[in-house]
């Protein structure tokens, strides 16, 4: 690598001899010509990179400074004096890093110019404030994405808590900004296994069974409008919410949770869809197969679910209805059901048709 650079320098640098383009305090002012930017080094005029130095030298000209950097395998950039000193020379600092790894340390300074070895990062390929880390040896780069972005060029914003979990590899729940086209929403991503399995879980709805905001006939089940989106940032509390994740987030798993008398229980439905809205808004019945005992386990021992019918899923509809739930009957049919457990049950937001009122949560992954 050093030999290749040396050959390049002999070809390039003779055209980069110092030019006196003005004077300041009796000293010549050096402004490197355009060929620096076109070939081996990229110039940041009147800038100074404040990182660890490999060494400091006085040099006759820019060629000497460049050769000193290229002779050190750990040198990635240099700070060079913008004007000659009293001895007629320039000070030259060899640096162990570059502006791509330390963008916040590139400072304005009238007494120096900063030069970095030209790399794939010179074209600023990383989007959304991603940090470009070049490999000078192989002529490639890696983008280190700012929190909330993924992709080879940090070009993609998180669309779900699953994206955040896969990026952070952490079970600590945290506030994440999700990107849906030009729109964003902030949610508290529930990470890890709290009852539905490991991974990142995206909140979709929070329903208070003591209210009728999300009863079966509510337009919130069929439209694409939010309700109290700030409730998506507060976890498993008593704030009702419907988030834009209801119609924007694809999934293969649905996590259902109910809180009764301070006790939270969860169960998992395996179902793949482009969004929860796509499963519910058209009113079509879509069966699930949890079984009555898993639905009962969501609530508490006081819940009533009669033995027969057991129609369950999305948009269960007989004489009783639930957006997500199960129907029960004493008779061996589904025409005269007197019991149900679920979300959006007839005129109740969540819980059972008996006296059970639950605070309910829907998340997807």
UniProtKB/TrEMBL annotation:
InterPro entries: EGF. Disulfide bonds join 126-143, 145-154. Keywords: Disulfide bond, EGF-like domain, Signal. Residues 1-25 form the signal peptide. Gene3D superfamilies: Laminin. Residues 117-155 form the EGF-like domain. SMART domains: EGF. This is EGF-like domain-containing protein. The keyword Signal applies. The keyword Signal applies.
């Amino acid at each position: 690598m050093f030999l290749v650079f040396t050959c390049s320098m002999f070809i390039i640098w003779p055209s980069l001899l110092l030019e006196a383009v003005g004077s300041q305090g009796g000293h010549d002012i050096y402004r490197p010509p355009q060929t620096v930017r076109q070939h081996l080094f990229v110039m940041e005029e009147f800038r100074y990179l404040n990182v660890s130095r490999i060494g400091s030298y006085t040099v006759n000209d820019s060629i000497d400074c460049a050769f000193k950097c290229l002779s050190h395998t750990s040198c990635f950039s240099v700070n060079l004096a913008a004007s000659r000193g009293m001895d007629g020379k320039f000070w030259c600092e060899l640096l162990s890093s570059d502006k791509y790894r330390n963008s916040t340390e590139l400072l304005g300074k009238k007494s120096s110019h900063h030069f970095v070895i030209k790399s794939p990062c010179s074209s600023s390929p990383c989007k959304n404030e991603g940090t470009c880390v070049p490999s000078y040896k192989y002529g490639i780069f890696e983008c280190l994405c700012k929190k909330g972005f993924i992709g080879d060029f940090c070009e993609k914003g998180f669309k779900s808590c699953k994206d955040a979990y896969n990026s952070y590899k952490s079970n600590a729940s945290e506030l994440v900004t999700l990107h849906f086209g030009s729109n964003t929403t902030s949610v508290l991503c529930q990470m890890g296994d709290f009852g539905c399995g490991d991974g990142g879980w995206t909140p979709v709805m929070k329903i208070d069974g003591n209210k009728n905001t999300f009863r079966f006939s509510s337009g919130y089940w069929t439209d694409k409008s939010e309700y109290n989106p700030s409730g998506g940032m507060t976890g498993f509390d008593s704030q009702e919410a419907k988030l834009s994740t209801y119609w924007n987030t694809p999934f293969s798993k649905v996590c259902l949770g109910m809180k009764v008398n301070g006790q939270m229980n969860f169960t998992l439905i395996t179902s793949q869809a482009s969004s929860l809205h796509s499963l519910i808004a058209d009113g079509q019945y879509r069966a699930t197969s949890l079984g009555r005992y898993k639905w009962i386990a969501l609530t508490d021992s006081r819940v009533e679910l009669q033995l027969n019918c057991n129609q369950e899923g999305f948009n269960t509809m007989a004489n009783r209805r639930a957006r997500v739930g199960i129907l029960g009957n004493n008779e061996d049919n589904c025409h005269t059901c007197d019991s149900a457990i679920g979300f959006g049950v007839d005129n109740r937001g969540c819980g059972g048709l008996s006296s059970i009122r639950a605070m309910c949560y829907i998340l997807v992954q």
